[in-house]
Amino acid sequence: MEKKPEPPVTNLESLAADLDRHPPEAVLPRNLNDFWLRSITRDLMKAQQMLAHENLEFDHVVSGPLYIVIRILEAKRNARCQPTAELKFSKKLLPPLFEELQWIAEQEIIARATGVYYRTQAVTLESIFSIAMNGTTSQ
User: What Å distances lie between residue 46 and 43, 102, 109, CA to CA?
Assistant: First the structure.
C-alpha cells in the first residue's frame, strides 16, 4: 500500500484570524467548523504519536491546539473576574489538556458523522479541562 503524504499542520495565522473575531466559545470543538475540527484533531493525534515514539520535536504540530487551549484558559480566567491576571500554567499540564481536548474533538467528529452524541450535556467553557485541571470528570 502506498503511503499518503502527510497533510500540513494547522496554519496558526489562519486559525487565529478566523476565530479571534468570535467569542471564546467559538474554539470549543462543538463550535468549530469541520475543517478546523479535523485539523486540530489531526495535530493532537500527530503530537501523541510523536510523544509515543519519544520524538519531542513537535512544537510545529501543537501550535493550533495550543492556541485553542490558551483561548479556553483565558476565558476561564476572565470568567473568574481576573482578566488582568497573568495566564500561567505548567508544561506538565499540557499533555493532559491536549488529551482531554483530543478526546472531546474525536467525540465531536464521531457525533457529527453518526448523529449519535455521547454526552447528554454539551462541553462548555466552564466544564472543559475539569479532568486535567481538577482531577474531576466533566462528563
Answer: 5, 11, 16
CB 45 within 8 A of CB 74: no
Tell me the per-residue pLDDT of 5-45, one tens digit each, with 9 for 90 and over.
Answer: 666 789 999 999 999 999 999 999 999 999 999 999 999 99
What the block records as the C-alpha cell of 81 is 473576574
Which grid cell sits at 109?
A: 467528529
Residue-wise pLDDT for 105-124, tens only, equals 999 999 999 998 877 678 88
* Number of Cα atoms under 13 Å in the Cβ half of residue 120: 1
Q: Per the structure block, which three cell numbers stand in for 19?
A: 476565530
- Which pLDDT score, from 0 to 100, does residue 134 have? 65
Nearest to 127 by CA among 76, 83, 85: 76
The b-or-e profile of 107-135 (16+ CB within 10 A means b, else e) is bbeeeeeeeeeeeeeebebebbbebbeee
Question: In the Cβ-directed half-sphere of 103, how many Cα atoms lie within 13 Å?
Answer: 15
CA dihedral 4, 29, 64, 16 (to 10 degrees): 120
Q: Name the CA dihedral angle for 19, 46, 121, 33, rounded to a multiple of 10 degrees.
A: 40
